[in-house]
Amino acid sequence: MKATGIVRRIDDLGRVVIPKEIRRTLKIREGMPMEIFTDVSGGVILKKYSPVGEMSQLAAAYAETLVHLTGHGAAVCDTEQIIAVAGPAKKDLLHKPLAPQLEELVQGKRIFISSADSTVLASQNPPAAALAVFPVVSSGDVMGAVMLLKSEKSPARVSGEAAESVKAASMFLSRQLEA
After folding, report:
1. Residue 6, exposed/middle/buried by CB under 10 A (0-12, 13-18, 19+)?
2. Greatest CA separation for the chain
3. What are residue 149's DSSP bridge partners?
4. Could you identify which of 103, 128, 131, 175 might form a hypothetical disulfide with 123, taking C-beta atoms 3.0 to 4.6 angstroms apart as the criterion?
5. Strand segments (E) across the chain
6. Any idea of the CA torsion for 99, 104, 105, 109, to the nearest 10 degrees?
7. By C-alpha distance, which of 69, 66, 130 is closest to 103?
8. What are phi and psi for residue 119, nearest 5 degrees?
9. Residue 113's closest CA among 137, 85, 146?
10. What phi and psi values does residue 44 have, to the nearest 5 degrees?
11. Which range (28-32, 42-46, 139-143, 166-170) has the least confidence?
């Protein structure tokens, strides 16, 4: 753990204020769910909670299915990072943070389908481009997205059937989060 030099007191209701500088640095927003853990040395750990991350095995299975159906690499992300990948870039992209362009698209609950040579940068390190992105929305809140990835072996454009497959995957994951 890294010390910040900031000390806060617990109030009479058991609350502790996370300083604004830390919230800004870690992109913690008001209303964001947090998980609370304890470690063996008596420390308390707060971690951003990702409902989509909780279903990473299901997301990985769906990504594998999308690869077989569409011929494109596929990925599922929460609002912060890529949580499931299938296809050529599997090991390189798993748990990588979203590129700002994709993060903005996901937060805006916008759908993206490539036209001509347009793509959305999905990850900066390593660089990866998405050809289609459909948000995963539960109870009106964006939880992540399902996407098809560009590769040398896959077609340069997304077919209508492939886009419908990604849409179905995002709707399925959205429904799973509401259950």
Report:
1. exposed
2. 60
3. 73, 130
4. 128
5. 34-38, 44-48, 73-78, 82-86, 112-113, 120-124, 127-138, 141-149
6. 140
7. 130
8. -140, 170
9. 146
10. -110, 130
11. 28-32
